[in-house]
Amino acid sequence: MTIPVEGRVTKRRPGSAKGGLAVADSRPVFRNGRVHGLRCTVCRNPSAQRDLPWCPLCRGRLRADSFSPSGSMWASTRVDIPVGVRKPPFALGYIDLDDGPRVLAHLVVPESVPIDTRVTVTGVEHGDLVAQVLS
Ligand SMILES: [Zn+2]
Questions:
Q1: What is the pLDDT of residues 6-62, one digit of tens each?
Q2: How many whole angstroms separate alpha carbon 28 and alpha carbon 123?
Q3: Strand 62-67 to strand 34-40: parallel, antiparallel, or no bridges (unpaired)?
Q4: Sign of the C-alpha dihedral, residues 48, 129, 107, 79?
Q5: Ligand 1 centre and the CA of 87: distance in Å?
Q6: Per-residue H/E/C for 12-26
Q7: In 3D, which of 51, 47, 40, 46 has the Cα closest to residue 10?
Q8: What spacing in Å lies between the alpha carbon of 82 and ligand 1's midpoint?
Q9: How far apart are the C-alpha atoms of 24 and 53, rounded to whole Å?
Q10: 34 C-alpha vs ligand 1 centroid, how far in Å?
């Protein structure tokens, strides 16, 4: 179930639609061609999550940062079962952004791609990052 909240679509448990507690949406934000997240002011560790209280590595303070949309595929897979609004086949994978964190993205082409393939995040679909292979 998706509900527009503060200008963006987010996933929430059905209970929140009926007055229950909202669930934090930990998915990265893609805006103005950049992936937005946090970076530690002490150890420089990047994170695509936006609601961390402190750095998970050193407990240092975090500040907002944005990252290049390009990176290398860390792992990917093809999915052959329906999941939510997604109809099979579709593919998703983890991308190590060049100057940022590892993020999960759906792939434009519904096939897994080799490790270290160059990819770039191109947008958002159903609140999830979408990426395509760079030619
Ligand atoms: Zn840190």
A1: 555 555 555 566 676 666 677 889 999 999 999 999 999 999 988 899 999 999 999
A2: 11
A3: antiparallel
A4: positive
A5: 39
A6: CCHHHHCCCCCCCCC
A7: 51
A8: 38
A9: 13
A10: 22
CA of 1 to the centre of ligand 1 (A): 34
Using CA atoms, how far apart are residues 119 and 22, in angstroms rounded to an integer?
A: 33
3-class secondary-structure state, position 89: coil
CA of 96 to the centre of ligand 1 (A): 18
CA of 4 to the centre of ligand 1 (A): 32
CA angle 112, 93, 129 (to 5 degrees): 125
DSSP string for residues in 1-64: -EEEETTEEEE--HHHHTT-PPPP--SPEEETTEEEEEEETTT--EES-S--SS-TTT---EEE
* pLDDT at residue 50, as a whole number: 84
Give the rounded distance of the alpha carbon of 99 from its chain centre: 15
Tens digit of pLDDT for each residue in 102-132? 999 999 999 999 999 999 999 999 889 999 9
How far, in Å, CA of 106 to CA of 129, rounded? 6
